[in-house]
Amino acid sequence: MMSESLTAAVDIITFRVCDMLCGLNIAEVQEIKRIHQITAVHRAPPEVRGVVNMRGRIVTIIDVRQKLGFEPSAGGPALVIIVPHREEMLGLLVDDVDDIVRAEAGSISPAPDNLAGVERELFCGVLKLDETLVAILDRSRVVERNVNASARPSP
Amino acid sequence: MSQGTSQPRTSRTTKSRASAAEKPRVAKSASADVTEAITLIEEITKGNLVLNFDSDRLAKDPLLAALHKMVERLVGAFGEILTSSTLIDRSSTTTNSTAKALRDNAVTMQKTISAAASSTEEMRHNMNSVSASTEELNANMQSIASAARQSNTNVDSVQVSIKELTTASREIAENTARATTISKKAMADVTSALSLVSELNDAAKAIDAVTATISEISDQTKLLALNATIEAARAGEMGKGFAVVAKEVKDLASQTNTATKGIQGKIGIIHEVARRTSDAISAINDVMKAVNEAVTSIAAAAEEQSVTTDSIGQNVVSTTERIKEMSNNVSEGAVAVQDVSKSILDVTNLSSAVAQSMTSLNRNASEVKADAAASYAQALEVVSQGADIKRIVAGVKLPSDVANQGKNATLQLCRFTQDFDVMSTKMNDDHKRIFGYINTIHQRIKEKSEGTALLSTLKELADFTQRHFQREEEAMLAANYAAYPQQKAAHTKLLAKVAEIINALESGGEVDLLETMTFLKDWLTTHILVMDREYGPVLRAHGID
């Protein structure tokens, strides 16, 4: 994936988590959905906000803000980026979906070590746009249950 | 001395002769008659009338009888003279003192007149000063009148000012009324502006709602476009055209979103401006309310002022009237003062006349004083002459009873002397009593008695005289007296005259008492001396006493 992104041009969906502009390769995205109601799951980890029924399929909703170590998002209507992961569907709860941009080959740099305030391991690279930077999330790592800022063992 | 007095005189002489032992003796011999007569005459010449005559020889010797008769008559005459001179002396002394009193009275009167004259002068002076005061009063009145005129003018100008003030306050009232109307309209306008702003706000809100919907739609559109793009990417080469469409839709949605955001920004500005406008209008509204209240209170004040000014105006009008009234009163007062001034002038003139009268009265009093002095001097002369007579008579030696006769004589207006003898004891007594009445009246007049005392005496006199006349007439009839009718007529005339005087006195009329008395005295003495004395011998011849 990484190598792929470096060698060929890809489409990146950009979205906002708090003030942070993040991105995902649209090849990893099923669709974007506006969710009105989330059913909370008892004893679920903190980043799991709950589940929704989407056309008969159960989608687990992960709060990206929580995952990235920000304040948890408020309740109410939410934008969810649906991503398939190992035969199941996960929903990444984000604050706003921005755009889909074309990342030419070589435009994505490796994520810097000192990425401020968030766990470096959750990112796979940084896309430089005209005036801003887009942090490309690593889908596998984001959806990994044990990988998050709060649960991560100290080095 | 008249005849017919021999009877009482003879007896008196006989009596004196009996008592005088030292009197010169008359010779008894007939041959010595002439010598004796010469001796007697020499005695008489010396003034000695106290002589002894032998009654036996008197009958024989006619010369002695004649001498005796002469001496008797001389004694009688001197006795009368003595009596009269004593009375003159006494009366003249009284006259003297009366004249002196008259003079004193004249002097007193003159002094009184002088005092009255000076009082009159003083009164005139006072009048002059009153007149001056009145002049001053008049001047004061004039100045009051002019002051009243001045204040009247002032009040007139005040009145004009008040009228102007009234007009001004009415204008203020009108202006404030207009201002009230305007401010009310402005407030209404403000209110409608507020509601317009509110409407604008509402409209903006509605636009907000619309833009929210548009925004939502554009969001969904964007989402749809993104999903379409994801789908197209998944379709690979097949989905490329679709990806282009999806991208166009996504750009449209993005542009819509931008435009909507712009609209929303503008709407926000509209909201803000509307809010500020609303606040400003509210502030204007508050100001307008304050203005309105101020104008209302100005209107009320102006109204009040107008009313007050009206009442001041009325007061000024009534004040003007009062001042005019006062002015008229002062004018009338001035006229009255002028009248008073004129009256004072009249009184002053009158007092001048009185002063002149006083002066002439003073002159008269001086004359009276001079007259009184003259009469005093004349009285003194009379006194001196009376004294002379007394001295002369004193040189004559008279029988003591005759000599004493003068001393005993009382001062009487009518003295019953031998001349009034009518040879009838009864009638003589009646006549004496009548004389007594006349003397009483005379005395009363001298004592300055009141008319009533005189009246009673006069009535008594009239009463007695009537009875006396009756007696006389009866006697005359009894003696067949020839002149009875004349007597009767005279009596009737007198009684009528006396009755007339009494009537006049009783009715309080003016009667000259002195004249009355003089008339009575003259009438009676004349009547007795002339008429009554003629009936004496006739009555005696008929044996009537």
Keywords:
heterodimer, A: 155 residues, mainly beta, OB fold (Dihydrolipoamide Acetyltransferase, E2P), 6-stranded mixed sheet, 5-stranded mixed sheet, 3 helices, 11 strands, 10% helix, globular, disordered C terminus, B: 545 residues, mainly alpha, Four Helix Bundle (Hemerythrin (Met), subunit A), 10 helices, 87% helix, rod-shaped, disordered N terminus
Report on this structure.
- The complex is a heterodimer of chains A (155) and B (545).
- With 155 residues, chain A is mainly β.
- Chain A has one domain: CheA-289, Domain 4 (OB fold (Dihydrolipoamide Acetyltransferase, E2P), Beta Barrel), CATH 2.40.50.180.
- Chain A contains 3 helices and 11 strands.
- Chain B is mostly helical and 545 residues long.
- Chain B has a domain of 134 residues: Four Helix Bundle (Hemerythrin (Met), subunit A), CATH 1.20.120.50.
- In chain B, helix 8 runs antiparallel to helix 9.
- The longest helix of chain B is centred in the first third of the chain and has 174 residues.
- Chain B is rod-shaped.
- The two termini of chain B are 24 Å apart.
- The N terminus of chain B is likely disordered.
- Classes of the chains: A mainly beta (155), B mainly alpha (545).
- Chains A and B meet through strand 3 and strand 8 of A and helix 4 and helix 5 of B.
Write the layout of secondary structure elements.
The complex is a heterodimer of chains A (155) and B (545).
Chain A: H1 2-7, E1 10-17, E2 20-25, E3 31-35, E4 48-54, E5 57-63, H2 64-67, E6 78-85, E7 88-94, E8 96-103, E9 108-109, E10 123-128, E11 133-137, H3 139-143
Parallel strand pairs in A: 2-11, 5-7
Antiparallel strand pairs in A: 1-2, 1-8, 3-6, 4-5, 6-7, 9-10, 10-11
Chain B: H1 6-19, H2 33-46, H3 55-60, H4 62-235, H5 240-394, H6 400-408, H7 425-446, H8 451-478, H9 484-506, H10 513-541
